[in-house]
């Protein structure tokens, strides 16, 4: 196994040249564009306590419903199945992360792969918590629906239904004042928003990670921690499979403007590497990111461009799923249209 070490990364000569300047433009320009897109489509949105929004005609309004983070895409699928899948995926990814850190140490976090796999683990952990809440909500709604149905049957049969038996149908409305309901609603919407952003960052990141490894690193480079073994396959194949399985079950979408968070995620990793190498002369986890190479601007430009097809391909898969389910199961399909 080789280490790609470049001497003198802490010197001014390494950083003050045309290659670094051009690579900086390639990295920082998408950051500015991404922040502008986020500001345009999401930064102006403000939700008031009565549930109304101060900014109208925003294309992203439909992506803020909090119950779609735990509801499966079809009514016949109980939320418990999505919960069970997320528990399994979280346990698997967490165990893989722990083993990887124990075996290789903290230096494993120099790799974009580890960043992405950790983000996938966070996604499934967060999703597990939201699914627990969703199963509880589904259980309460089932009880409420059964109570209402029982009351209708009794009414049709001429039976008297005491008010005491119907007292719990409006418990939440009586126990929570408007300010408390507003706080609960805001917390749910913030949690939903963060969860969707993590899902959409993962959608592009796992595609980029697997593409770079199987098409560039594995055929052409031999790098530390990247010997082909079961653990490597887990982190460069099952990450996509697990996320795809969740995408098949859930109701989440991939709006085009959310690619901005994926771009910021990758740029944060690149800037992290630059800061580390400016302070300490250590090995480069990916040789093509070495700024001393004459081809560095071409590599950076290529990787920046690959964000579009990586995010777009996963978006096509998700949108195709929604389209087919809406056609095949129009009555039970309950995702956002």
Q: Give the end-to-end Cα distance, rounded to a whole number of Å.
A: 50 Å
Which structural category fits the helices and strands?
Answer: mainly alpha
Beta fraction of the residues? under 5%
**Sequence of secondary-structure elements:** EHHHHHHHHEHH
Using only C-alpha atoms, the radius of gyration works out to 24 Å
Total E-strand runs: 2
Q: State the low-pLDDT regions, or none.
A: 46-62, 146-155, 159-176
| Overall helicity | 55-70%
Q: Strand order across the biggest sheet?
A: 1-2
Reported for the largest beta sheet, the result is:
2 strands, antiparallel
Task: Characterise the protein shown here.
The chain is mainly alpha-helical and 337 residues long. It contains 10 helices and 2 strands, in the order E-H-H-H-H-H-H-H-H-E-H-H. Helix 2 packs parallel to helix 9, helix 6 runs antiparallel to helix 7 (230-249) and helix 6 packs across helix 10. The longest helix is centred in the middle third of the chain and has 45 residues, at 112-156.
Please supply descriptive tags for the structure shown above.
globular; 337 residues; single chain
Q: Could you give the topology of this structure?
A:
Elements: E1 4-5, H1 12-15, H2 18-43, H3 79-104, H4 112-156, H5 171-175, H6 178-220, H7 230-249, H8 259-279, E2 283-284, H9 296-305, H10 307-328
Antiparallel strand pairs: 1-2
In brief, what are we looking at here?
This protein has helices at residues 12-15, 18-43, 79-104, 112-156, 171-175, 178-220, 230-249, 259-279, 296-305, 307-328; strands at 4-5, 283-284. The chain is mainly alpha-helical and 337 residues long. It has a two-stranded antiparallel ribbon.
């Amino acid at each position: 196994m080789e280490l790609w070490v470049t001497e003198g990364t802490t010197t001014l000569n390494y950083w003050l040249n045309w290659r670094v300047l051009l690579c900086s433009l390639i990295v920082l320009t998408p950051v500015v564009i991404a922040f502008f897109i986020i500001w345009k489509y999401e930064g102006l949105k403000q939700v008031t306590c009565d549930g109304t929004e101060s900014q109208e005609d925003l294309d992203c309004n439909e992506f803020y419903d909090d119950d779609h983070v735990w509801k499966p895409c079809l009514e016949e699928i109980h939320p418990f199945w999505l919960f069970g899948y997320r528990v399994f995926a979280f346990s698997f990814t967490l165990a893989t992360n722990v083993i990887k850190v124990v075996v290789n140490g903290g230096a494993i976090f120099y790799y974009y792969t580890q960043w992405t796999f950790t983000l996938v683990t966070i996604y499934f952990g967060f999703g597990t918590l939201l699914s627990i809440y969703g199963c509880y909500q589904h259980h309460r709604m089932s009880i409420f629906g059964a109570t209402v149905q029982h009351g209708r049957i009794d009414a049709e049969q001429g039976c008297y239904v005491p008010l005491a038996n119907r007292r719990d149908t409006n418990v939440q409305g009586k126990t929570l004042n408007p300010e408390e309901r507003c706080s609960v609603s805001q917390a749910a919407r913030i949690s939903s928003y963060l969860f969707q952003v993590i899902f959409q960052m993962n959608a592009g990141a796992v595609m980029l990670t697997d593409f770079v490894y199987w098409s560039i690193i594995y055929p052409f480079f031999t790098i530390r921690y990247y010997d082909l073994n079961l653990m490597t396959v887990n982190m460069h194949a099952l990450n996509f499979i697990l996320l795809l399985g969740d995408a098949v079950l859930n109701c989440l979408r991939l709006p085009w403007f959310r690619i901005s968070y994926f771009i910021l995620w990758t740029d944060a990793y690149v800037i992290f590497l630059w800061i580390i190498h400016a302070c300490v002369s250590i090995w480069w986890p990916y040789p093509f990111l070495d700024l001393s190479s004459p081809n560095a601007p071409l590599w950076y430009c290529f990787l920046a461009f690959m964000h579009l097809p990586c995010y777009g391909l996963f978006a096509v898969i998700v949108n195709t799923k929604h389209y087919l389910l809406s056609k095949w199961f129009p009555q039970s399909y309950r995702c956002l249209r």
